[in-house]
């Protein structure tokens, strides 16, 4: 049986004794070394990134392991003291505008990755798997803007959401399914290059996120996403 692109990439890393903190070769060189297309390589790297096994820095390249704090965006100080409600409110202000811009600038490959990510959201079996694909979904939208400042800001927002006392939970399958459908609605509008509708669908989604947070706090549970 032919190995998947991800398995071939993992074999390459093991054969070259690459470890956390090491830089991967440039995408073109790595794809040639692995004998695969750059699209297949990007999909394998995306899977590793979603699992927190690689990180990418704008203008820096791709590295194994989790993103070191020294390479985090300077806005990381915003994380201190931010509650789930604070984060949800900030996202409601920012992300509809991000997705409207991304709709105009996204490449066909960007849209294909977003479709894939939305499908993975829909099949997530637990909160940890949901979080991986949800964070990637929102980061992919930022990356599709081709704006380094927006990408860095979204990276910070995702980091804020991962704080133990601020991490949002998708506690049940019905919640995950509902939000996955909203993600798919966003992607559908993006595929139609309808930025206004994509922004409206993102706003609906984030209002739904925001609406759930206070009620969850009243029960003394973690915030639901």
UniProtKB/TrEMBL annotation:
Domain (HTH gntR-type) ranges: 1-67
InterPro entries per the UniProt record, alphabetical: GntR_C (IPR011711), TF_FadR/GntR_C (IPR008920), Tscrpt_reg_HTH_GntR (IPR000524), WH-like_DNA-bd_sf (IPR036388), WH_DNA-bd_sf (IPR036390)
SMART domains associated with the record: FCD, HTH_GNTR
Keyword Mitochondrion: no
Alphabetically ordered keywords of this record: DNA-binding, Transcription, Transcription regulation
Keyword Phosphoprotein part of the UniProt annotation: no
GO molecular function: DNA binding; DNA-binding transcription factor activity
Name this protein carries in UniProt: GntR family transcriptional regulator
Source organism of this protein record: Caballeronia cordobensis
């Amino acid at each position: 049986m032919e190995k998947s692109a991800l398995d071939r990439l993992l074999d390459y890393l093991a054969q070259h004794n690459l470890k956390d903190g090491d830089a991967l070769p440039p995408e073109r060189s790595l794809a040639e070394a692995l004998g695969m297309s750059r699209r297949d390589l990007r999909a394998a790297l995306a899977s590793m990134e979603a699992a927190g096994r690689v990180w990418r820095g704008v203008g820096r390249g791709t590295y194994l392991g989790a993103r070191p704090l020294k390479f985090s965006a300077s806005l990381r100080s915003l994380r201190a003291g931010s509650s789930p409600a604070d984060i949800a409110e900030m996202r409601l202000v920012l992300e509809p505008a991000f997705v409207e811009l991304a709709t105009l600038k996204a490449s066909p490959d960007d849209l294909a990755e977003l479709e894939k990510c939305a499908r993975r959201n829909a099949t997530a079996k637990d909160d940890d798997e949901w979080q991986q694909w949800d964070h990637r979904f929102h980061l992919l939208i930022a990356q599709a803007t081709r704006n380094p400042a927006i990408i860095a800001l979204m990276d910070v927002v995702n980091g804020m959401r991962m704080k133990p006392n601020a991490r949002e939970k998708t506690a049940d399958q019905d919640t995950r399914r509902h939000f996955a459908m909203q993600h798919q609605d966003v992607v559908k509008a993006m595929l139609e290059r309808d930025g206004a509708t994509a922004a409206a669908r993102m706003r609906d989604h984030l209002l739904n996120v925001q609406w759930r947070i206070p009620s969850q706090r009243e029960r003394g549970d973690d915030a639901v996403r």
